[in-house]
Amino acid sequence: MSQLYNKLLEDVRFQEGIKACINCGTCTAICAAAEFYNYDPRIIADTVQSRNEEKIENLLKSETIWYCGECMSCKTRCPRGNAPGLIIMALRALSQELGYFVESEKGRQQLFMKRVVGGWILTYGYCLYLEGIGTNMYAEQGPIWDWRQKNWGKVLDRLGANYKGEGNGILRKIPEEALDEIRKIFEVTGGTARFEKIEKFSKEKAEAMNLKFDDGIDNEYFQHIYSHNNNTHNIE
Amino acid sequence: MKVEGKQAIWKEYQKDIAGDKYFYVRSCVRQNFFPGSETTFLRIMREELGKDIYEHPCHTTCTGIGYHGDVVPLDTMMTVVARQFALMTEAGYQNLVPSCITSFGIYTEVLDTWHHFPEVEAKVREYLRKATGREFKIPQNLAHASDLIYKFRKEIAQNAKFKLVDKETGKPLKVVDHIGCHYSKMFPEKGVGGAEYPYVLAGMIEDWGGEVIDYPERRHCCGFGFRQYLVQANRGYSVACSHKKFESMEPYKPDMILTNCPGCPMFLDKWQYAIAEMEGKTYGKDGYGIPVLTYEELAGMVLGYDPWDLGLQVHQVSCEPLLDRIGIKYDPLKKYNDKNGVSLGVPEKPSVMKVS
């Protein structure tokens, strides 16, 4: 029995995500990622149910597991009640736990997600906190977003928000005692440990790749993982 | 009463939606991109419908984008959700209403997981106790904010000042609905109409005078994909998904797109601009885009609220052609004003897509 398979089984999403896959390919037919990337969720399900240690290790180090968009369309369609999207979530969790995520271009992007989204959650209590995030990083947001950024607080005020204010309302300042509770939850449930692992393995990878690394978002490694695409991921 | 025929077919997709006394949790995406929608939702619930809808200043993100971006572990997400349940319990409420579809999916997933794995619920209760000292009760009723507008759609229709009808021809407007994936793809029985024929937005469109348009890629994802949009190197995934939808709906000439997920209207709005810049193609009439509205904006619009109170000015695709067709009056000179009526300047115009 594969040790990695046993590790996956510890995740309830894996238990819920796969019974016996019949390899019909319905998930692949409906998959948004399979239309864009060289990606086939049917093969993901088949690989994990092989319980082959080497194949699962290769999967955990691969680009493949990072292609899914977690829309969960596969969950609706599978005639056996499987959900490749849930299998992917368990694989991604284990890949980060073992440090395998830095072996792929797409996996290395987890440092972006940790520092940006993770940072907003722990600093402000929101998944997104977009003042100052401009069209230099998100060009498709367009001229209306430039206008909004220029007038960030005033537009929020016009539309009934309570930006950085006390009490209730849109983008209010979440009280420090509430944020302390969230941080404590991260500590006791493994959220902080996950973040530390992402940082540790990313730093080691940056050294191996000879890219400059620090704790901000302007360093060479961070900019590389945010924008680099080796153009081998897509369907021809 | 004997339930048969069509009623029997739809029975499992009839959703129980609480009638009053709601604990409201906000959406991170909505608050940043469509703040006017949350303001409008609370205005309708409280002022039009007279409902008790409570917000706690200490509630936070559910961690949804972090969870589906796979940097926030399952146990962490579940314990943050348990803390929201604790705030609801302490405030004396039992009916939870998330503004966000990702959150709605997450709350549904957590409750389903605890149902199948009671030992996981026990573990999360212990985590929450250790981290915060809080206890909680499981919500008696969980409904997305769009479920509430759906439930009260007929009351809204009775108070409506406008119908979704072309004022010149008298014909119903053609409306495309786009349901957020996590509304019912994971747990079809938790959404009005299930995953194949979700009725939550179609019901609003029909009762407010419009015509629902079916098209091949109606159920395709808008392309957020969490890390697929947020990381620049992956963003082609996102635009490819939206592009597929626009191409598929184009032959049906929709007058507008209606959405119930916080992220989808942003992507369907902004990618129309980007596609126009990249390929020179626009999907609306006369070089404009197809207006993309939130259900709160649409409800406020038929109720006769000022379009600039709803926040239609923060869309990249102009909504004025739609307002004109219905016959809704607005003051173009007030579009870009602050709350004191002072102009905040005018955004630059896109180079391809026409804007008002």
Task: Give a structural overview.
The complex is a heterodimer of chains A (236) and B (356). With 236 residues, chain A is mostly helical. Chain A folds into two domains: 3-98, Alpha-helical ferredoxin (Fumarate Reductase Iron-sulfur Protein, Chain B, domain 2, Orthogonal Bundle), CATH 1.10.1060.10; 107-227, no CATH class. Chain A has helices spanning 3-9, 12-17, 26-30, 32-36, 41-49, 53-60, 73-77, 84-98, 105-108, 110-124, 142-150, 152-158, 176-189, 191-208, 220-227. In chain A, α5 (41-49) crosses α8 and α10 (110-124) packs antiparallel against α14 (191-208). The model of chain A has no long low-confidence stretch (mean pLDDT 97). Chain B is of the alpha/beta class. Chain B folds into two domains: 18-145, Glutathione S-transferase Yfyf (Class Pi), Chain A, domain 2 (Up-down Bundle), CATH 1.20.1050.140; 159-334, Rossmann fold (3-Layer(aba) Sandwich). Chain B has helices at 5-10, 28-33, 35-48, 64-68, 74-90, 101-116, 118-132, 145-151, 153-159, 181-184, 200-207, 227-230, 235-249, 263-279, 295-302, 307-310, 320-326; strands at residues 22-25, 53-55, 95-98, 141-142, 174-178, 211-212, 256-259, 292-294. Chain B has a four-stranded parallel beta sheet with strand order 2-1-3-4, sandwiched between helices. In chain B, α14 links the parallel β7 (256-259) and β8. In chain B, α3 packs across α15 (295-302) and α5 packs across α7. The longest helix of chain B is centred in the N-terminal third of the chain and has 17 residues, at 74-90. The mean pLDDT of chain B is 96. Chains A and B meet through α2, α4, α7, α8 and α10 of A and α2, α3, α4, α5 and α6 of B.
